């Protein structure tokens, strides 16, 4: 059996850390159906195996690279500025709750997103 096997989530929220990533998968009605804590390589393998879904993450220096990588697995990636995620936190801030708030924020119809840029669009 594959550890951290993806479930059929509609939306994933990813809290990006230096070494550890937290992922929340939610179904169509927004109920969390999967929680995952993993390292970068496991995260990439997870999204390779997952059915195409919406993947949300906060804007940060690593989010552009990770967004392009996840998009290559047929997922729709939405990057949300951090200040727009904060209102969706339901309790004290921690990585798992941040991932859940990101998953909720990306489902909002009026949410503003950061464009996922191609490598040649990024300032060097």
What characteristics describe this protein?
124 residues, alpha/beta, Nucleotidyltransferase, domain 5, five-stranded mixed beta sheet
Task: Give a brief outline of the structure.
By secondary structure, the protein is of the alpha/beta class. It has helices at 40-49, 63-71, 82-85, 95-105, and strands spanning 11-15, 20-26, 32-39, 54-58, 76-80. It has a five-stranded mixed β-sheet with strand order 3-2-1-4-5.
Class by SSE composition: alpha/beta
Fraction of residues in helix: 25-40%
Would you give the CATH topology?
Nucleotidyltransferase, domain 5
What is the CATH first-level class name? Alpha Beta
Q: Percent of residues in beta strands?
A: 15-25%
- Based on the structure given, which CATH architecture is correct? 2-Layer Sandwich
Query: What is the alpha-carbon Rg in Å?
Result: 13 Å
Protein architecture, described:
By secondary structure, the chain is an alpha/beta fold. It has a single domain (about 10-120), classed as 2-Layer Sandwich (Nucleotidyltransferase, domain 5). The protein contains four helices and five strands. The chain has a five-stranded mixed beta sheet with strand order 3-2-1-4-5. Strand 4 (about 55-60), helix 2 and strand 5 form a beta-alpha-beta unit. It starts with 10 loop residues before the first strand and ends in a 19-residue tail after the last helix. The model has no long low-confidence stretch (mean pLDDT about 95).
């Amino acid at each position: 059996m594959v550890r951290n096997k993806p479930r059929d989530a509609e939306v994933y929220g990813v809290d990006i850390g230096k070494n550890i990533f937290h992922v929340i998968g939610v179904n169509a009605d927004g109920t969390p159906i999967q929680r995952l804590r993993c390292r970068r390589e496991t995260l990439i393998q997870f999204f390779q195996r997952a059915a195409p879904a919406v993947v949300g993450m906060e804007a940060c220096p690593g989010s552009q690279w990770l967004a392009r990588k996840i998009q290559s697995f047929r997922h729709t990636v939405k990057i949300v500025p951090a200040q727009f995620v904060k209102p969706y936190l339901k309790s004290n801030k921690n990585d798992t709750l941040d991932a859940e708030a990101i998953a909720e924020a990306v489902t909002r119809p009026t949410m503003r997103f950061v464009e996922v840029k191609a490598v040649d669009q990024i300032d060097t």
